[in-house]
Amino acid sequence: MNRLSSIAMLVTALGLTACSSPAPIHYYTLLPPSSANARTVQVQSPFLIDVLPVGLPEYLDQQPLVVRQSVSGGAVSVLDEERWVGPLGDELRNALSVQVAERLGTQDVSGLSSSADQKVVRIKVQIRRMDAWLNNHVQLEAGWSLGIVQGSKARLVCQGGFTEAAQNGYPALIQAQQRAVGALAARIATDVRNWGSSQQAKCSTE
């Protein structure tokens, strides 16, 4: 009987251990597959870009995903099992850097040295909101400013909003956020192309 009791206790302990195993963590990135950007490459730009760190509300700048619980309410959920591969600010800067550079046919020289005769357009992005509703949609609002690194004090300050439908599940939600960031990158690239060529250019509207 003692042996049977010991076996029963062991089985019970193993069952409790299995029940208490932590849920798996899923990691996501805002950087889409490179094939998704290849078709957007334009004629090579006569200038380089310098994408600064992206500003965003502090509560968003973390690894766990932050989603709104309802369209009308103010409650949010922080999802420990659904995470970005790094802080959201880093994810945004990397995604914008790659996509804007690819669209312009240029290079992001942030943190690198460049020759004095190469024009560099500095890009500063501030995320105002980046809301996500599971199985519904995502909404991104941002402002950005452009300036020439070499001496000129001229600035172009723009803003825009982007909404993408999100299908069922977290992977689809991330894809919607990737599309919204891609739309932001496309708008910034258009402004950089126009304003980098002529500082009389205005903000694009699409």
TrEMBL record:
SUPFAM superfamilies: XCC0632-like
Pfam family, one: ABC_trans_aux
Sequence ranges assigned to domain ABC-type transport auxiliary lipoprotein component in this UniProt record: 28-189
Keyword Lipoprotein recorded: yes
Assigned keywords, A-Z: Lipoprotein, Signal
Signal peptide extent: 1-23
Gene3D superfamilies referenced in this protein's UniProt entry, alphabetically: ABC-type transport auxiliary lipoprotein component
Domain of life: Bacteria
Keyword Signal (UniProt): yes
Xref: InterPro entries: ABC_trans_aux (IPR005586)
Name of the protein in question: ABC-type transport auxiliary lipoprotein family protein
Record organism: Comamonas thiooxydans
Taxonomy of the source species: Bacteria, Pseudomonadati, Pseudomonadota, Betaproteobacteria, Burkholderiales
